[in-house]
Amino acid sequence: MIRDGKLQGWLSLPVDTLPVWATLNGVSFDGVSIGPLPGKEDRGSTVIARRHLKGGHEPPLVTIPRDLILSLERIHQHAKSDSDFRAVLDGLDEFGRTARGAILSFLLMQSFTACPSVVNKKGVSGPFTEYIKYLPMEMLPTFWSPAECDLLTGTTLAPALSAKLKSLNREFEQLRVATANIPWCAEQWWDEVDGILEFDDWLQVDAFYRSRALEYPGVGDCMVPCIDMANHSSGTGTAAIYEVDNQGNAVLLLRDGKNIEQNGEITITYGDGKGACEMLFSYGFIEDEMESARELFLDLSIPEDDPLRRAKSAVAKCAPGFKIVDAEDGVIFEGAYIWIICVNEEDGLSFQIQQTVDGAQELIATWQDEPVHGFEGFRSMLEQDPLWDVYHLRAVSILQERVASQLQDLYGSDDRVDATQHGDGTGIRERAWHLAKRLRVLESELLEKAYSYYEDQVSRQDRPISDDLHIDMDGFRQDSRSTIHVCSTC
């Protein structure tokens, strides 16, 4: 299944042979099958109704034996009978004890075991050795070319994608270092001439996991064959739910009141609240019905001239930024980091060195002599202060400035993206261009809504809006080089 690296040379299995694999491994289907939708073969495989299905009256549509649920527990069980894989997992230490580390390593090992060009086979074959051959190549942004990634300039996906690729490189290097002393790994994976593993191989197993992992009750993050073929639809479009039955098997159940005609699609939800950025990042698409970016995350940094900058950075354990969430009555912002930025020593924030019970020293923060733990609950402390309105206004001004900066980046690259040639022979695929363009539109609309909402909040607090703070959106789009100044010392 890993075809971009050296683990290639074999074709994926046609999905119409999947029933044979399912029968051999105890998977049962009732009224459904897996394959392309009639007339929509270009959308890939999905779960299809083979008869009229009536919600509330159907047995499980798909039942997957518990031994096929690819969870952290299942992988550790497999490692007990696969000494080659156990050596890899043990070498990864803490990373190998996480669901992500264990599952990615397992998928990589199964791909290696299945590859016909490997002469000296290692690892124990199992159901997943064949199942990974049914998994399609995912068009996640981690596989986009540099020119395609450049289309994301100004979106929140651009920094997220850059950080993800760096993280994947670190993981791949960790795998190399952890297994370099295992003789067969050194020879077959890492040899400079004959070594078979490449970074693209790690990208592919990451894509398998990120786009197909489900969170099962009582199991945690895992992959479930066949059920992971179901496509996504949110809200009322979601046709089925996935659960674990009383025997620990994974089951796909039609929702009560949901009727599906013969040859109709059985969809699940990958998460109704997920924003456009996360959908594109993790699954490689944006819903056609999505009318809003829903949410986006903007990073924040503590100003260089803040005298408590180093202490704040050392103590803060929260994400350095804030999330904007689209809401019917405005825009909600979430994130503790903003409150660290908008108060200082003269307000009552201080830091001191404290000795722990084991004799070590640690830096702790206090707010008006009360200890602050992690800053996650810091807002509630500020809300009790008589100057809360001042702190809140500072936060809103900082948020508005950050939103304006993001809009400037988006607008500043719009003309270039619009003029970019795409399609056959250009090096930029049509699908990548259209996805990037759609993300840009959705995020700019939410950012504009957020900016206007913050402006209204400032106005309601009887604070005149300075000429520097106000932005005429139409003019701003035309002159993306405008310099925007926002007062942050309210």
UniProtKB/TrEMBL annotation:
**Which SUPFAM superfamilies does this UniProt record tie to the protein?**
SET domain
Q: Which InterPro entries match?
A: SET_dom, SET_dom_sf, SETD3_SETD6_MTase
SET domain: from which residue to which, for each copy? 30-271
Q: Which GO terms describe its molecular function?
A: protein-lysine N-methyltransferase activity
Q: Name one GO cellular component term.
A: nucleus
Q: What is this protein called?
A: SET domain-containing protein
